[in-house]
Amino acid sequence: MLNISLGELKSRELDIVYLDFEEKIDSIDVDGRRVKVTSPVKVEGSIANTDEGMYLDCRITTVIEDSCSRCLKNMQVEIDAQAQGFLVHKDEEEEALEGEEDVFLYEGEMLNFHNIIRDTIIISMPQKLLCSEECKGICPGCGVDLNIEECKCSKEQTDERLIDPRFEKLKDLL
């Protein structure tokens, strides 16, 4: 049910359309990488006709799989987000974007809910995912997972690998 007909709302035959559906989405593209969606996307809410236009208010929940920012292990992330804003026809986009409210664009009589789901998930994803606050990450020298084993680099080797060759002469001053 990713396409929702808005015809009856636009013609004022209905004042409100309730949303309660699940949709299976395999993955979404986020900043050029593919993020796996591991549970069906659940959408609950409504689209109401108001004096100012059609207003969407819904809750979107799902679980995605992404990698820890430090150790790169795959982890599950629960998404529980609200999508709220006016529905605006694509031809009226410029006027609507001048306002301060969030808007969702539609074409013809249909609202493509896939874009709303994708954008809501992307906005709700944490900027930095951590499998735990204590995650030690990966050694930049030898590449071992520091949560599992000790670093195999000697301190001196690590320092030499991390020094920018342009600043190597400064090391002699120490």
Automatic annotation (TrEMBL):
InterPro entries: YceD. PANTHER family: LARGE RIBOSOMAL RNA SUBUNIT ACCUMULATION PROTEIN YCED HOMOLOG 1, CHLOROPLASTIC. This is DUF177 domain-containing protein. It comes from Peptoclostridium acidaminophilum DSM 3953.
